## 1
Amino acid sequence: MPIVVVVGGQWGDEGKGRIVDLLARKARVVARYSAGNNAGHTIINEKGEFKLHLVPAGIFYPEKTCLIGNGVAIDPEVLLQEIDQLEARGIDTSKLVVSDRAQAIMPWHKALDALEEQARGASAIGTTGKGVGPCFADKVARRGIRIGDLLRREDLAERVNQTLEYQNRVITRVYDGEPIRFEECMDRYVDFGRRLKPYIGDVQSVILQAERRGEHVLLEGAQGSLLDLDHGTYPYVTSSVPSSSSSGAGLGVGVGPTDISRVVGVFKSYCTRVGNGPFPTELFDEMATTLRDHGKEDGRGEYGTTTGRPRRIGWLDAVAARYSVRFNGLSAVALTRLDVLDELPSIKICTAYQLDGKTIDTMPARESMLNRVRPVYEELPGWQTPTKHVRNFDDLPPQAQTFIRRVEELIGCPVDLISVGPEREQAIIVNPIF
Ligand code: IMP
Ligand code: MG
């Protein structure tokens, strides 16, 4: 039965939460498969505006089961706060299942995230500071602590004992930082385990049961594919696998590639990036401010959901998008925030790069090359007409239709969904995804 994956196609913040919220209507199970509470999704529905960092965007539909997969790094304190806040606003979280195999973000991960960034100096990555990178590093180094370990004091003590001494040595000797105290950490995390216990379970079996019953499952990506540890703009990436390329989505919940039937990539009609690293189409003029502050008064401006940082802004980069379409194996694109372009007299799309006098149409791997590329632009006429109310492709202004058709051509993937505003209904379904 269809497992549909939704991934961010660019550097994150493409509006995945909004698209998942829309697609979740047809799914029975919605699962997060990667990243941690570095992610931030803004969702606006009839109950108000919500900012989620860990709980899947399907939570607003009471009959859906929501899962947090093994591929996610969970700060238990943040998860509990999010659950409490949802409950306080009348959202039922009783159908949430959190994988016992997911990694727990521990106090030393947060300390190390800050210390490592400081030590990087001018080449800081610009992380969200939530401890996600050091947590995934521990997972790979096989000294991570998993959510299931929080359920029994003895198990936790054994795991913390194995790791904390080492991490405290790094914190104090490498970085001159303050050591983490064993007892304090134990008491807090045993308590987190006690409070999370009703939610902890086996995510993979929930998905398999849903598949057997013929129900739709939606796998919700976090961040963007160009922040992918393998395929992104390394080393300016996150430490997990936002893409759906075989190691991402399936790995993060425990299903195989043959279980996945469709992969939807969410792309903004322009580009944004938070944090440092290459961004070939970045704009530094008034156009950046215009796009960043569009809808700012309604909280829709381009400012980070997790950190509040202003996002860097650029034109749509079709070279990067094409690359992302390929390594994600995308079957469809959801193009978001088309309405943000409504007032512009003309719109640019980057179709190729100039690198040392040559034209190239692929994304180089090396940072030094990515920093040197110059975008080659194609300029299309704007529509200068509001699109917020449009619900059918044919009712879009002809210039907007031309823009979308050109995007499809350049990136090599059909645009099946277009969003023209933050509300659930402000969408144009060109081809139903389920
Ligand atoms: P980290 O994931 O906190 O280690 O940060 C690594 C990079 O990924 C930084 O450039 C962050 O700004 C970026 N990043 C992490 N999470 C998100 C997200 O949800 N949206 C956009 N950028 C993100
Ligand atoms: Mg976000």
## 2
Amino acid sequence: MNYWITFIYLLFTFSSAQDLNWWQTGAVYQIYPRSFQDSDGDGVGDLKGITSRLDYLVDIGVNTIWLSPIFKSPMADFGYDISDFLAIDPIFGTIEDYDELVREMKARDMHLVLDFVPNHSSNQHEWFQKSINMDPQYSDYYVWKDPIGYDADGNPIPPNNWLSFFGFSAWEWNEQRNQFYLHQFLKEQPDLNYRNPLVIQELKEIINFWLEKGADGFRIDAVIFLFEDPEFRDEPPSGNPNFGPDEYDSLLHIYTRNYNETYDVMRELRVVVDDFPSDVSKLILLEAYESIDLVMRYYGTAEEPIADLPFNFEYLLRFEDEVVTGTRIKDAADLWLDNMPEGKWANWVTGNHDRSRIASKVDPRLVDGVNMINLLMPGTPITYYGEEIGMINTFISYEDTQDPFGCNFGPDMYEKYSRDPERTPMQWDSSVNSGFSTAEKPWLPLNPNYLEVNVENQLMAEESHLKIYKEIINLRKELAIQTGELQYLNVDESLFSFMRVTDNPTNQNYMVLVNFGETDSVVDVSANSLVPPVATVVIKSLSSTVTVGSVLQTSAIPLGPKDSLVLSFNSNNP
Ligand code: TEU
């Protein structure tokens, strides 16, 4: 009889782990290619540089790389303005370098996710040039409109009051065509016209091209901006006094975002990806900063899936609140989990190339605790390069500022919008430029803390954020973390704690406790019937003074301010 029980448990263990995809058991790591590793000394990171660092990524345990855009671009928005969707920009290398990266990744059982930017191209793209020239095929590839009149000086007046996300009018006058074109981002990023089926066809071809070139998925950029009001009506003011008339948030964007048709186009792209013959399932990440109901629709349904992982920005944004509490993090986690359609998979993200990293959002002592949450809650973690070593934002003077979002607003306001602080080079070691580049001046300055905060130091140290990250990620191989149930333990203003449990007695269960508070506390989680009287410390934050391996009473778990712990226990022993 006992044999049978063990057999059934093993079968369960085997089959449930087997049912998960590589992107569910693994972890995604975002690389901003300009800033990861420069191989040729020009001060800008490149593909060869990334290839040379693959063993580091294997060592820390990530299996998936999402690369911000590497395609041909005049770099007005540092690669998010693409002038040829099918070519690699020379600053990043050649198509051979790309092939080599893919080969080396596959040899390490890693997966490549490319950034796909459907909303706009560069104004240098051949399509846009042909569109200006009214080439019959390309004339309607972009959103062109006549002026609504001319002012007293004879200047054309834009069709409506729409603003660019980067500030100022979303309309740019084109002398040659004598019309305005729409750009929801920079004027160098004209919006493609999604009401033209030829445009959608082009996108499908681009997707197939990169699938054939070995990509295992896409992160789809700025999705909510694809369609606009066909009547081009003015948007109403937001009434928010914190924003001047040129700032995007001074309007309510009811006519430029999230049209129903957007979901249909995304669904069509999903079908292209799924129809591609491959024995490796593909991953679609999707960027939509929107309200939860609109974001959830991007998962699609079981029969008609869209994205595998629309980014969980509600969670990311909670870490930017003035006060981060256990209760608020639980509310954010529940907002996602409770709204997620049946059978879908969650994700946990705290930083990216547009938003600061963990250690600049919360007290840096919480880096380990937040990584524990990101990596051990049910779902896929997404780490922005450097979060594993606790990199923080870098101060960038106006003179050194590169990001057009910052430059647009001039020296007094650039810091409100510039994304350069979270884009500075990866901190590898304490040599010149932290081992990132041999150039005299990298494209953005290194954070001066690189002498202390770097990969090499943290690999050598007895304890470090990096070593802790590696230990946490290693737990993702455990059944309780892959498929175990989530149960919250005590959650209040200071504490966030949860456990991951399976009902399989041969498996370890885990609990995670993070103290967001400022004071020492002694936590009693023993009231939960699945929690045994004692549990073993398997991982502790740098700040904690408990010893890994020690056995703690679950009625009195000591947590100093900003401390975090992972404990293991066996629920067969409640
Ligand atoms: O961002 C689009 C977008 O939705 C963001 O601007 C978002 O609203 C903002 O970052 C929230 O802080 C994407 C890319 O991530 C960004 O880097 C590009 O500049 C932009 O598209 C244009 O391609």
